[in-house]
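It would be a great kindness if you could assist me with a short task in structural biology. The matter concerns a single protein, recorded as an amino acid sequence and a row of backbone structure tokens. Kindly check, if you would, that the fold set down in the tokens agrees with what the sequence suggests. Thank you for your consideration; the sequence and its tokens are set out here:
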Amino acid sequence: MKTDTLITIGMLSKITHVHKKALEYYDKIGILPPTYVDDENGYRYYSAKHIYLVEAIRECAELSIPLKQLKNFISEDGSQIDLLPLMDLGTTLATARLKEVEQHLATLKSMKEEISYSEDFLSQESLQYATVSEKTYWLTPYAGNQVSTDYHVHLAQTKEQMRKLGIVPGYEAGMLTFWKEGQPYSYSYQSIDKKNATIKKKQVVVFPETTFALMKSPNTNHQAVSETFERLRGETYEKAIFQTEIFAKKYDFESPLFEMKSTLPEASLLKQLQQMV
């Protein structure tokens, strides 16, 4: 075949400002088929149409359209590209990325609100009270310590298990202990994104709106924390203790503080938890 009217891959690289290695990769995955390949030396030759095709490929790359999928929209000889369905694919992918970004922004907003709440919480010295709206959590029996490596491994495994089931973990996590007839029962808890709140799994528990007594503490011994609540309130009662790390403006990895929440006497949430065992 005469190559007088064709251009080499090196020339195509100079014209399009795309590295030769990238053009070779495009050929390898089937989206830039050369017009002619010399059997003797393996040189690739291209025609003018490929200049436009390379520009289209670059545009798709900038739009984050997977290059390997372009093969489905390009003719065998590279002379035609099916633009409308390709743009439909790009729109679908961009919409999915936008949704993911919106989820990240929502998480960041919630975390900033939590930091603001924590700063206010840390400024208070006395026992506090707060009503927490209905929330959905993933509960797993766990009797470890929240400041241990084992806890963080456990939490990572829990989140991975949730994601495999299509459940999006929220940002709130911690430890929970409740008592029934004097016997303690301990769990880890991980909040669930609102869109997954109706999923039916034995690990998924919806906590009703509940009023808690709150205090900050470096102590993660729930029995000792329970006794402190009783001393501050001046009464002995069965309760559920929720423990979560406090994330202030500056977080101390070596000496974390915890928000401890205790249900009040006869709380419906405690009765709900006690029915689990």
Remarks:
- The CA atoms of residues 73 and 82 lie 5 Å apart.
- The chain has a mean pLDDT of 89.
- The domain at 7-81 is CATH 1.10.1660.10 (Multidrug-efflux Transporter Regulator; Chain: A; Domain 2).
- The two ends are 81 Å apart (CA to CA).
